[in-house]
Design brief:
With 259 residues, this protein is of the alpha+beta class. The chain has three domains: 1-81, no CATH class; 92-128, no CATH class; 132-255, no CATH class. 24% of the residues lie in helices and 36% in strands. The chain has helices spanning 51-60, 72-79, 85-89, 116-124, 173-186, 210-216, 234-242; strands spanning 2-4, 7-9, 15-16, 24-30, 33-39, 100-103, 110-113, 130-143, 148-158, 161-162, 189-192, 195-208, 222-231, 247-255. The protein is globular, with a radius of gyration of 22 Å.
Length: 259
């Protein structure tokens, strides 16, 4: 925390503004004083989830050279990084801070932090609390006529034991169900390796937990998410048939907690 014009502010944490000529503001240390930096066009959206749009913006504004955090250009480029806007604008204080693990979205490096200052220092170096996760499940059946693929998009337990994924993480049943419901209600889009245009869609979806299975009379030695996915793209379907694409991969955001 620092003082700016008689008020306590959090340094290096962008926040949205209302009614002004800029979309965001951030307070930074500039020598022996605290400086307010405003940036972002309030009439334009940040399409950082579009890889092409993100790359174009960063190249156009030479973001790799923007190192001075007392400038609007630095913070505009931060908003167009791989980190989500919500993770960049989320503020921690001494009161709400809890130990957690932070990740660097480019290098994959992870660091466990136990103090607010450690969190702020790592954040300055591009680390974030949330990370994008890819959880793969094997395709078990294909339907040539309808171009459908069926299988487990995610498996979280097997024979009652938690399944550890490729990021050395585990997902709780309630968390999975909420994520599946959100995805099916608002997204349902499938891409090839998470990039480019839509190549298919999830047609059928069923999260299977012990509670759901028991209520439906379904017996399974697994808990997870079963899907049926329809492929539109000819090239992608050819890769499915050849075995080059043999698994589902789910991208999403997660908050990591130590177990």
């Amino acid at each position: 925390m620092a003082e700016y014009q008689g008020k306590q502010v959090t340094l290096n944490k962008p926040r949205r503004t209302t009614g002004g000529s800029s979309k965001f503001e951030v307070f930074v240390q500039d020598g022996d004083r605290v400086k307010r930096v405003s940036f972002g066009d309030p009439n334009m959206s940040i399409r950082r989830d579009n890889p092409k749009a993100r790359a174009n913006f960063r190249a156009r504004h030479s973001c790799d050279t923007k190192k001075d955090k007392t400038t609007a250009g630095y913070w505009s480029c931060r908003m167009w990084s791989s980190s989500s806007v919500s993770s960049l604008t989320k503020a921690y204080t001494e009161e709400n801070f809890k130990p957690h693990t932070m990740y660097h979205p480019d290098t994959g490096e992870s660091v466990k932090v136990t103090t607010l200052q450690e969190h702020l220092d790592l954040q300055e170096n591009g680390f974030e609390h949330k990370m994008t996760k890819n959880i793969e499940g094997k395709i078990l059946k294909t339907d040539d006529e309808q171009r459908m693929v069926y299988g487990w998009a995610s498996v979280i337990t097997e024979n009652g034991e938690p399944v550890v994924d490729r990021q050395d993480d585990m997902i709780e049943a309630d968390t999975l169900v909420k994520a599946v419901n959100e995805f099916m209600e608002h997204v349902r889009v499938g891409k090839a390796m998470h990039v480019g245009e839509q190549v298919g869609t999830v047609v059928h979806s069923l999260p299977i937990t012990k509670e759901i299975g028991d209520s439906l009379g379904i017996q399974s030695d697994r808990e997870g998410w079963v899907v049926a996915y329809k492929v539109y793209d000819d090239d992608v379907w050819a890769m499915v048939k050849s075995g080059e694409l043999a698994a589902f991969s789910i991208g999403g955001k997660a908050i990591k907690e130590e177990i």
